[in-house]
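As a warm-up, study this chain.
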Amino acid sequence: MNAIQVLKTTRKNILSLASKYSDEQLNFIPEGFSNNLIWNMGHVLVTQQLLCYRLAGEECYSANSIIDAYRKGSRPESTADSSEINMVKQMLSEMVQNTEKDIAAGKFAQYKTYPTSYGITLESFDDAMLFNNVHEGMHLGFMLALQKHIQ
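Now compare it with the structure written out below.
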């Protein structure tokens, strides 16, 4: 098993969970929560790009508007429409293949050290991939908790 395999499996689980819900349900914020299913999906998409790509000096695949909407510290400010939801779903899958391709191309030779709020300092792309998988697992857990409140 390697980090890409874990990423693929987590993304498959996220997309499987999301496929059960309508756009309205993906946007629903239950009482006591500060975000929704689609925000968690967009957040893991954006975080992986920031941790793995931006800190390695590489361009992110997502537009800055998507990065701003879903980055750490953001909250759902508006309802994600079906085109945004479909884009997030598609990118969740495509980023796994993009990352595999970019690893093979040697794109991640450099890395800017980054201390996470989790208490771990990332010093390499490999560190970023390992930490990203922890992060995505945590947000999948949040999504499982959220779904219990969706009608």
